[in-house]
Amino acid sequence: MKKICIVTGTRAEYGLLKPVIKRVFHSARLELQLVVTGMHLSPEFGLTYQEIEEDGYPINAKIEMLLGADTASGNTKSMGVALIGFADYFEINKPDILLILGDRYEMLAVAAAAMMAQIPIAHIHGGETTEGAVDEAIRHSITKMSHLHFTSTEVYRKRVIQLGENPSRVFNVGALGVENVKNVSLLEKEELEKNIGFVFSGITLMVTYHPVTLEHMTAREQFRTLLEVIEENKDIRVIFTKANSDTDGKIINEMIDAFARVHGDRCVAFASLGQVRYLSALKYCSAVVGNSSSGIIEAPSFGVPTINIGDRQRGRVCAESVIHCGNGKKDIEEALRVGLSPDFRAQIKNVRNPYEGIQTSKHIVDILCKELQKGIEIKKTFYEVKV
Q: In terms of domain of life, where is this protein from (predicted)?
């Protein structure tokens, strides 16, 4: 049996990886090494490793890395701690391949440790662009360390090849998030309302806002503008999901808590809703607002409008249900006016989601089995794209 190490550091990432974890766990040809790190182990972010345990998946190791700071210096030091922890883990456990998803700084440290240990890396969601976030450079860096690539659209597959990766190792499989939307058993509205202590009525927004990490100290000002729009529109109800452990993420989370205390009659806030509650809430909300990738990738599958604010997600392939706007108050108000209009909602009711694949998790695991059986050469040749 081949040993596949899957690493997860955030609530959202685990939700995406869950169908792959399930397939590997039940495979007769693969042995799962599940490692949790980052926000999963932090009380501030809900100790979400417990959700993994409740799902019945054995955690092979918990590797601490967060130092409790949301500064650039703190996150850099956290990466150093992760490098030490994963260096030891890979030396002892020697997986046949590492599977990681995305573009966060936690995964950059994990990939670097695996590279030095000569462990081949399989990477999900490469080739994407998010021009407002440091994730952009991290994602492409992980691509260059990786040996197998699972992209979410054909546009991204071509971009990974453009980065010099051999086409025979780059696979367009669609997005795991869309597979989850199609396969997860969602809660009925009444059950969800009881579960989260919130009633869906009138205009209900799902708001997730993260710092734009390639801008300097803009989180407070930009998020305050969005809160002003919500405050002035008394008929708007809001479910807030809090920011990740990015630089200045605590600023946003403190503002969410303060706003929810004052407007508790129409707002609730969560460090983590978990996959089922989050996707169920997407189904029943009027619009997704903020700058999270879930508004770009998952929300279109519900026919729900997305108001994507600012530059954090700039450059991603988007469905027609996504409305991009600036950070200004008038920009957000106009985007909401359009997105909540009956005409726009009718227009996107059956919108095509460009991230939809066919049995994405099965495709990924089948390819992993095939490539591991053949043997994965660590040495790579730069693939020259002919122009």
A: Bacteria
In degrees and rounded to multiples of 5, residue 254 shows phi and psi of -65, -40
DSSP 127: T
Report if pTM > 0.90.
Answer: yes
Q: How large is the C-alpha radius of gyration of the chain? A: 20
**CA nearest to 306, candidates 274, 338, 275, 328:** 338
Predicted confidence (pLDDT) per residue in 11-45, tens digit: 889 999 999 999 999 999 999 999 999 999 998 88
C-alpha distances out from residue 354 to 114, 156, 224, 317, Å = 32, 11, 32, 7
- Asked if 169 and 147 touch (Cβ cutoff 8 Å), the reply is yes
Got the DSSP string for 223-284?
HHHHHHHHHH-TTEEEEEE---SSTTHHHHHHHHHHHHHHTTTTEEEES---HHHHHHHHHH
Measured CA to CA in angstroms, residue 176 lies from 144, 231, 294 at distances of 22, 35, 11
Angle (CA) 311-317-318 rounded to 5° is 85
Structure tokens at 386: 């002919």
